[in-house]
Amino acid sequence: MKDDNKNNKVDSTEQDEEKVRQTGSLRERLARVKKTRWIRFGVVSAIFFAWVAWLGNWWVALAWFLLADIYLTQFIPWNWWKFSKNKVVRTIMSWVDAIVYALILVYFLFIFVGQNYQIPSSSLEKTLLTGDFLWVNKMVYGPRVPQTPLHFPLAQNELLGHKSYIEHPQLAYHRLKGFRNVERGDIVVFNFPAGDTVVVDEPNNGDYYTRVFQEGRDAVWNNHEVIYRPVDRRDNYVKRCLGLPGETLKIVNGIVYINNKPIPEPKNVQYNYEVKYNGTPDYDYLTGELGVTNEDINRNVTIDPMTGQQFIANELYLPLTAAMKAELQKCSWVTSVERAKYGPAEGPFTYPVGVDYGWTHNDYGPVWIPKKGASIELNEKNLQLYGRCIKDYEGNNLEIKGGKAYIDGKPASRYTFKMDYYWMMGDNRDNSLDSRFWGFVPEDHIVGTPMFVIISFDKDRGWTSGKIRWNRIFIDANPDK
After folding, report:
1. Is 80 exceeded by the pLDDT of residue 13?
2. pTM of the model
3. Can you say how many angstroms the Cα of residue 18 is from the centroid of all Cα atoms in its chain?
């Protein structure tokens, strides 16, 4: 009882001091501020003005007066709940105060420094594995000022089945100064360019543009729920940058050429192989020692159109590195391992979708990658390749009338790009949805580059059988650079 009384007296004294500090004129309030609080305010002010200078918008500096009131004058009763006679109110509000403070810190950390990101697919195997959790550094290329500032900091675009952001206001694209530009070979996290329009009632939100090509726009809009997402609220993707602004890229038999010269492949680049075998494949070996994920094991299954009966050939299709291929060929049950062949049937589903140039995912281009300040002639082919950049990424009203291009209602024979663009591909070349499917990545979609693996989980294993990949914790996320 004595201790309780003592604590109550201490609480009462602190509350009385707070009440006194929040009364009187400006001079009286400042005179009562303790030296330690002045020091804290000075440190916070220095950090704040350094951030404003980096931001490059001095109107934001007006928020300093709000900081001054929080730390010094307290004309706004920020701590009103501390004076409540209701202990429950004080307890609940102390938690609310701590949570709000933490969320604000996380919000600024995720926007201007970096954030965690999970690898959801095998497109970058074996450099990054499905189930890797990465720390993505946003300061390397310079963080973007939020284009959709009102959003929940721990969710990209959905929270409990609802939008995690408010679309308005929308701010213009602005990137703060970073340490360097995107370089060839960088693994880059970016917002999915074709994720501006999303079929939300389909698994993984559906591929809107491919569906429109297959079903027609009216059918998609009449039969599905379709929404628009702002640039910084689109899904995050991670790929390797192979083509830079102003370069010409082509792919010949899977080998990427830049300006007619082949570029070195990543150490762990993978291609699909047709594996023929006798007997029964050793799946434990494939998913264990060899390291193929279950989702990447494909069997050659055909169905009799008359009976519906399935026939399974003694063939598997697996993504393999050169080292994995050499090891697999040693297995007694394997009879041959050959590169899988792909043909012109891919043509309509390469970028630009619906326009068949005879390109495939292994033989593509040549295609020029747009560069800020560079101009192109607005002919039929260029409009097919770059129309999306001009209209959707750079916000122009592009129309084609009588075979001629009109931009914002005016006839145009040439167009000058406002942004740099990049060409992104996965290391798991034949199992990667990348620029070969949806085209160029604009600079305003760039998020950052992964620095290291925080932790890694193998979804094909249980907690007692190696689910946590201990050997991947804190390893370099881009060992090829």
Report:
1. no
2. 0.84
3. 45
Distance of CA 6 to the CA centre of its chain: 54
Going by pLDDT thresholds of 50, 70 and 90, the confidence category of residue 5 is: very low
Question: What is the pLDDT at residue 10?
Answer: 45
Give residue 128's identity as a one-letter amino acid code.
L
Query: Over the stretch 180-209, which tens digit does the pLDDT of each residue have?
Result: 999 999 999 999 999 999 888 776 666 788
Q: How far apart are CA 239 and CA 423, in angstroms?
A: 9
Q: Is 160 left (phi over 0), alpha (psi -120 to 50) or beta?
A: left
Q: Residue 349: exposed, middle, or buried by beta-carbon count in 10 A (0-12, 13-18, 19+)? A: middle
Strands annotated E in 8-137 = 114-118, 132-137
pLDDT band with cut points at 50, 70 and 90 for residue 431: confident
Amino acid letter for position 384 = Q
Q: Please tell me the predicted confidence (pLDDT) of residue 2.
A: 47
Note the Cα 131 to chain centre separation in Å.
Answer: 15
Q: Which has the closest alpha carbon to 194: 372, 371, 393, 380?
A: 393
Measured from the Cβ of residue 475, the count of other Cβ atoms closer than 10 Å reads 12
Q: What are phi and psi of 255, to 5 degrees?
A: -90, 130
| Residue 52: half-sphere exposure toward Cβ, Cα within 13 Å | 14
Look at the alpha carbons of 122, 123, 125, 127 in this order and tell me if their dihedral is positive or negative.
negative
Which pair of structure tokens corresponds to residue 449? 């580059």
Tokens 């160029």, residue located = 440
More confident position, 25 or 188:
188
Phi, psi of 192 (to 5 degrees): -60, 115
Average pLDDT over the chain reads 87
d(CA 197, CA 229): 6
DSSP annotation of 60: G
Alpha-carbon gap, residue 393 to 431, rounded angstroms: 26
Q: Which residues contact 135 (CB under 8 A, 6 or more apart)?
A: 114, 115, 116, 117, 450, 451, 452, 454, 477
The confidence score (pLDDT) of residue 1 equals 47
In tens, the pLDDT along 209-221 reads: 888 888 888 999 9
DSSP for 346-403, please give it: GGGGSSSTT---S--SSSEEEEEPP-TT-EEE--HHHHHHHHHIIIIIS---EEEETT
First-to-last alpha carbon distance for the chain, in angstroms, is: 66
pLDDT at 121: 81
| SS3 category, 404 | strand
For the record, the structure tokens of 368 come out as 């020029």
Beta strands in 46-108 (DSSP E): none
